[in-house]
Amino acid sequence: MKHKSLESDECAVARSLDAIGDWWSILIVRDAMGGKRRFGEFQKSLGLAKNILTVRLRKLVAEGILRLEPASDGSAYQEYVLTEKGEGLYVVVAALWQWGENSLFAKGELKRAIIDRSTGKRLPPIEVKSADGRVLGLRDIQLTLADQDVAT
Asked: Considering the domain 12-87, what is its CATH architecture?
């Protein structure tokens, strides 16, 4: 089945998913956030076939989410490094993590956590807030056309 491109879609979620690609790509980004930089590190962590990993890494580079740099140890290898665009996905990864932690694991089952480096504590729940700081739930938001007359 041929993949339908969503790069021209009017929905920001659809375009974002087009840029990311699939679950392997978000797992690659997660690993890059955790410090992995080399092809072999990604392959060992994910257990992904080399050909599939190659395609996913190329797409992430083409989308400007990762960039290739000379190896930090001075060897002939290259390393994959998150760009500013890629680093911006930390909110997505953290939100998916928290959703999965709360929805898909029994108490005590999860052996890893995302923590605040400065305190060593788990992150508080990610919240969507209004401009005046109110926490918003699903029933408090509305998807609308950007050019529609909305209060700012």
From this structure: Orthogonal Bundle (1.10)
The model's pLDDT over 49-75, given as tens digits with 9 standing for 90+, comes to: 999 999 999 999 999 999 999 998 999
The one-letter code for the residue type at 98 is Q
Amino acid at 78: Q
What average pLDDT score do residues 80-94 get?
97
Helix (H, G, I), strand (E, B) or coil at 3: coil
Q: Classify residue 49 as exposed, middle or buried by CB count within 10 Å of its CB (0-12, 13-18, 19+).
A: exposed
Six-digit token string for 74: 């001075």
Question: Looking at the DSSP assignment, which residues form a beta bridge with residue 70?
Answer: 78
Domain limits of the chain? 12-87, 91-140
Give the predicted TM-score (pTM) of the model. Answer: 0.86
Helix (H, G, I), strand (E, B) or coil at 113: coil
* H/E segment holding residue 86: helix 84-87
